Amino acid sequence: METRKRGDTIIGSGSDDLPPLTAESTAKLAQLMTDVIQVACEGASASGLIPSDETKKFLLKRVSPKNTLNFDSLERYWVVLFDELSQILDRILAYQYVVQYRKVLKSGPNELLMAWQIHSQSLRSGELYIVQDRTSEFLKFLSYVGRDCGLTISDQTKAFEKAFKKTFERRLRERHRVVHAHERPSWESRIISLSGQTSPLPEDAIKVLLLETFEKTIPALQRVSSQLGKEPPMSVEAVEKIHEEGAIKEARLMLDLVAKAVLTTVGLMR
């Protein structure tokens, strides 16, 4: 990440230039944003500045009507921003475990495993969408509060949405397929739906579907691994490892996109 001022202490970077997926890195990001906003908010209140009507609208989405009485001035708006960003970052930290819950459920009844198989597909893409949507709204709120407090703000909402959708296009597209019945299901959807069937299907139909999936998926994984100079997966365990590493990579990509958007908004990053 290219930054200025305190940028080199933002959240660190891993071997592939993505931030590490740790509580320390997310806490550092939230604190950097808070350091800037808290000083600005308290200074604005001391100068007699009050929140704009647009800023108040964003606040009403996040606190109860009774609690809004505590936000007549800008002094404590940083608290709401800190809480909102922390919730988003906690979801990003938790995302990597979406593909690992099944390990705990293996000892459960078959009905539980069947339910998990159905839910897991929408859970992963759903979490991505939550991070996208909540971060976009957070960036708008952050921009309004920052401007009210006299900061020079660079609203990153649209840039973040564009970058996020481009990065996670396939998973967000899969979410659309699962939700909308008029969409032709992907191979992934078909296999997951098949595993969740409560009524028996013809054995020959199952064999054809599994064979077609194997012919498309495994060679593709082996081809990509070879291109990356890695050992191609030759077992179920190897494929599972790729699956889990993929979730970690996606979480780090999310963290990177959120960090860049937040820090650019408040002027800590170019």
Description:
The chain is mostly helical. The protein has helices at residues 23-46, 53-60, 77-95, 101-105, 110-148, 157-167, 169-179, 187-195, 203-227, 236-265. The longest helix has 39 residues, at 110-148. Residues 1-5 have low confidence and may be disordered.
DSSP strand count: 0
Low-pLDDT residue spans: 1-5
Order of helices and strands: HHHHHHHHHH
* Annotation field: number of helices: 10
β-sheet strand percentage:
under 5%
Structure class: mainly alpha
**Helix residue percentage:** 55-70%
The backbone outline, from C-alpha atoms, is: elongated
Q: What number is the mean pLDDT? A: 81
List the helices and strands and how they pair.
Layout: H1 23-46, H2 53-60, H3 77-95, H4 101-105, H5 110-148, H6 157-167, H7 169-179, H8 187-195, H9 203-227, H10 236-265
Helix pairs in contact: 1-3, 1-10, 2-5, 3-5, 3-10, 5-6, 5-7, 5-8, 5-10, 6-10, 8-9
Summarize the structure.
With 270 residues, the chain is mainly alpha-helical.
Index terms:
single chain; 270 residues; mainly alpha; elongated
